[in-house]
Amino acid sequence: MGTGTGLGRVRGLGSARSGTHHWWLQRVTAAANLILMIWFVVSIVRLPIVDHQAVVLWLKSPLVAVPLVLLVLSTFWHFRLGLQVFIEDYVHEEGNKVAALLLLNAYVFLCGALCVFSILKIAFGGVPA
Amino acid sequence: MLVSILHRATGTAMAIGGGVILTWWLVSAAMSPDAYKIFYAWIVQSDASSPHEGLQALVNILAKLAGIGLTWSLFQHMASGVRHFVLDTGAGYELKTNRVGALLTIAFSITATLVVWAILLTTGKLI
After folding, report:
1. What would be the CATH architecture of the domain defined by B2-122?
2. Most buried by CB count within 10 Å: which residue of A5, A29, A31, B9?
């Protein structure tokens, strides 16, 4: 925020008219990812086996399904922001950039929705263990 | 410099590789035991009754290498992310401190990856 007019600096908007919103959400989701990913790694390491029955029984607990849904939302949101900057930095041709950003959003929402729906289906007893 | 580039590279690797594997894992678990069996045979342990057993065994090895790579990516990205939080406060920009911080992220990521995979492989869960 070192450039721009005095008023622009006070408002903190910048050329994209969104100020520090993108930067801030990247940090908020990063903090959530830090906690949720440590939980996830410890849980996976502690699961005795990873066969179908074990995974379904594990996901049926609200104390697993809810953090896992939050983990999917937080990490997918975080990498949507991160890859958006990645694309803006390295894809300079306008048409390719728009196409890459659309593809990114399609990927994030398709996979994110599949993950959340799958977790909830198992958690609500939709899959016999 | 290196750690900054690694932050982007590991983030991108997890977003694409980790995102696809996590989605396949959860969707197959939510579909049926048979769908999960296909995921399991290709990623974890090849299925002796499958006509693709040989190929699956090869993919299993590649999947383990990818898994080790993704685990390291997670810990490297996590450590350099925490380092970013410190830098965001305006601290740690002195050349020596900055360099030590960068090296610590690599020391942490390699150590944590070795610990996790030592546990996974010795408990026999993935063999």
Report:
1. Up-down Bundle (1.20)
2. A29
Specify the pTM: 0.90
* Nearest residue of B to residue A42, measured between CA atoms: B116
Query: Cβ B30–A122 below 8 Å, yes or no?
Result: yes
Q: What ipTM was estimated for this complex?
A: 0.92
Pick from A31, A49, A59: CB nearest B125: A49
What pLDDT does A59 receive? 96
pLDDT above 90 for A91 = yes
Distances (CA, A) of B5 to A86, B2, B55, B89, B119: 11, 5, 34, 21, 29
- Chain A residues with CB under 8 Å of B12 CB are 82-83, 86
Chain B residue with CA closest to A69: the answer is: B26
Place of tokens 């991160």: A82
pLDDT, residue B115, reads 96
Within-domain flag for A45:
yes
Angle at B83 between CA A81 and CA A66, to 5 degrees: 55
